[in-house]
Design brief:
By secondary structure, this protein is α+β, with helices and mostly antiparallel strands. The two termini are 47 Å apart. Helix content is 38%, strand content 14%. It contains 19 helices and 15 strands. The strands form three sheets. It has an eight-stranded mixed beta barrel with strand order 1-2-3-12-10-9-4-13. Strands 5-8-6-7 form a four-stranded antiparallel β-sheet, with no helix packed on it. Strands 14-15 form a two-stranded antiparallel sheet. The protein has four domains: 160 residues, no CATH class; 78 residues, Muramoyl-pentapeptide Carboxypeptidase, domain 1 (Orthogonal Bundle), CATH 1.10.101; 159 residues, L,D-transpeptidase catalytic domain-like; 54 residues, no CATH class.
Amino acid sequence: MGAALLALLPAAALAQFSAPKLDFTADQLALARAVAPDPGLASWYGQRALAPVFAGPQAAARRAALIAAVETAPAHGLPAARYGLDRLRALDRPDSPAVRVEAAFARSFAAWAHDVQGGVLTPRRIDSTNRREVIRTPVDDLLARFAAASDPASVLAQLPPRDPRYRILQQALADEDGLSAPEGTAPVPPGTWREGLRGDGVAALRARLASVGFGADSADPALFDPALTDAVARFQDRAGLPADGVAGPRTIARLNQGRGARTRALMIALERMRWLNGHDLAARHVWVNLPEYTARIVEGGRTVFQTRVVIGKTDHAMQTPEFSDQMEHVVVNPRWNVPRSITVKEYLPRLKANRNAARHLDVIDGRGRVVSRDGIDFGRYTAANFPFRLRQKPSDDNALGEVKFIFPNPMNIYLHDTPSRGLFNETRRAFSHGCIRVARPVDLAHELLRGQVADPPARYARARASGKESWLKLDRTVPVHLVYFTLIPDEDGTLRSYPDVYGRDAAVWAGLERAGAAGALETVALAE
């Protein structure tokens, strides 16, 4: 039995089992089998020789803390059923088999900790353009804190995002649910209903308002009386509509809407915030929200710099990806190393037709040397075997303008200036090949250099005047977050919506539905 148990445990845990400990009981073997699929749980229980965390009277506070945390799942847009809440409640009894208690609570703990601190979904599996790496505390480390804590609930309370925007989204989700009538409630018929009118439509209005907590009792439900006017006004105020007490088309549409697009948008935004939970968003960072076409430098939750941006085209291959990295250099007078995809798709056909096409670009061989076009038969080459690179010297018409901002990443995505200034006046600004063009690049450079050099404008001006490519190193790198929020609170807490320019929300919602998140729509409530 001992050998069978050890076969289920990870190599890191094997050293914890010395020869005298190999006489395991059937219950211990069952527990080992239950936790084996999760490497973190297997490591934790292996190192502790399968000692219980949740079973027994002494662990009652831990069980209660986990049950209470999972009960808040709908407030996070997460389904409590995903974490076996009913099973946890049923097993939280003195006569429950210890091994079943331990296995059920341990697996629920691992699932809850995974989801609430870093999201239900793996971003890369949702969309190939999403390269975000989610940062989570390993479950064995969390269990160590949880088991040692005098107040285990406090450990669980630290798991969700602490960013104020997350709490605002939670509150909005609760408010949205509070405005949504239960399934089966009759809708209000079209029209404009106001005080003094009578009819079945007024009765339907009264009933639907009552179903969402805006009751107006009356001896004559079909009469639009002053009490109903007050109820309509209170609903309108809560829904963000003009509170005139008249149930017109907008009020009726919102009242009839139920749980729909806005609820989904809020749940998607909560999931995206969880993906960022491992980053310190209170620290100075660059925040580029792609659907907003805006880049900011944020410190302590407040914007200290803002600029319009142009992002990648809507073609899937040219969409700007989502990820986080560290800004390392401001490059003044940059050369433009033409991406290979652009070289072979756009420039090689032109060079085949005319070797002197695109004269602003140098042809570079494999050793980094500029070579003459006269000795190259471009017609010999295809996209697969073209052996050269194309590069543009620093110049006023350089495709990268006068400055670019480097945060090294495998996708070769960066922020940069551009000579195509007119595009910043467009409402929808998805025109690039994937990199992010900046409307105020020099001001951005100055702000990034602030605190890094004594006189940022002067340091930048010297580099610019040299006419040479100059790499200005940021001794203290600045985090960069390329994010995709179609709904997110601004600094004042007001929810702002943006077009789903790349259509990415649908894939996130589909993933949440597959994970069971749609079930959370049944009982959304804000946890205190």
